[in-house]
Design brief:
Order of helices and strands of chain A: EEEEEEEEEEE
Largest sheet of chain B: 6 strands, mixed
Structural class of chain B: mainly beta
Structural class of chain A: mainly beta
Order of helices and strands of chain B: EEEEEEEEEEE
Distance between the termini of chain B: 41 Å
Number of strands of chain B: 11
Distance between the termini of chain A: 34 Å
Shape of chain B: globular
Largest interface: A-B, 24 and 26 residues
Number of helices of chain A: 0
Oligomer: heterodimer
Helix content of chain A: under 10%
Shape of chain A: globular
Strand content of chain B: over 45%
Number of helices of chain B: 0
Largest sheet of chain A: 7 strands, mixed
Radius of gyration of chain A: 13 Å
Chain lengths: ~120, ~110
């Protein structure tokens, strides 16, 4: 019944050690988003895919990359995690682009700890 | 760049009291969405507003979009303990940016 699935739910990595977070969806939505949410803050959009078109937010650090090999899956790669990258990472999907105001469905998130 | 502000940051109410959170954008919005995030949970979509001056109701929740499409409000009548959480507005400025406001954290005392 799950619609947006994120694995793992908790991830611990070491400073500078690359890490990949994954997201899958059963909704067949065109758009997939990655957000970073730090404690007691709002989700911050990192980037999104509209189908295969990648859209990076202007202030997203180069340390963050994403891949979408097919409609169902999207990955967030953090090439060299720093202590400041410790956060909850939320994946979301929507049928259409956010400019239409289409509802976004969020996954449960992956909490990343950087040691 | 686009900035979205919300007030208040925190609100503590007694169960049965009303609650309102206000959202203001530095730029005109094409649409605004509202989300609720329970403690330890993920954001859940509540509503989308698109038209200038639009008002929508969901049971005890009333959402408004300002005439200039730069502000919005969420009003909850007769709060219940199940209303506890953080309420975020999120605005799109015609596809250029999609930004969440900082949220209003609501506590409801029984």
């Amino acid at each position: 019944d799950a619609m947006v699935i994120q694995n793992p739910r908790y991830q611990v990595t070491q400073f500078g050690k690359p890490v990949t977070l994954s997201c899958s969806q059963t909704l067949n939505h065109n758009v997939m988003y990655w957000y970073q949410q730090k404690s007691s803050q709002a989700p911050k959009l990192l980037f999104h895919y509209y189908d295969k078109d990648f859209n990076n937010e202007a202030d997203t650090p180069d340390n963050f990359q994403s891949r979408r090999p097919n409609t169902s899956f999207c990955f967030l790669d953090i090439r060299s995690p720093g202590l400041g990258d410790a956060a909850m990472y939320l994946c979301a999907t929507s049928r259409d682009h956010h400019r239409t105001g289409d509802e976004q469905f969020f996954g449960p998130g992956t909490r990343l700890t950087v040691l | 760049g686009q900035q979205v502000m919300q007030i208040p940051q925190y609100q503590h109410v007694q169960e049965g009291e009303d609650f309102t959170t206000y959202c203001n954008s530095s730029t005109t919005l094409s649409n605004i969405q509202w989300y609720k995030q329970r403690p330890g949970g993920h954001p859940v979509f509540l509503i989308q507003l698109v038209k200038s001056g639009e008002v929508k109701k969901q049971k005890r929740l009333t959402f408004q979009f300002g005439e200039a499409k730069k502000n919005s409000s969420l009003h909850i009548t007769a709060t219940q303990t199940t209303d506890v959480g953080t309420y975020f507005c999120a605005g799109d400025n015609y596809g250029q940016n999609f930004v969440f406001g900082p949220g209003t954290r609501l506590s409801v005392l029984p």
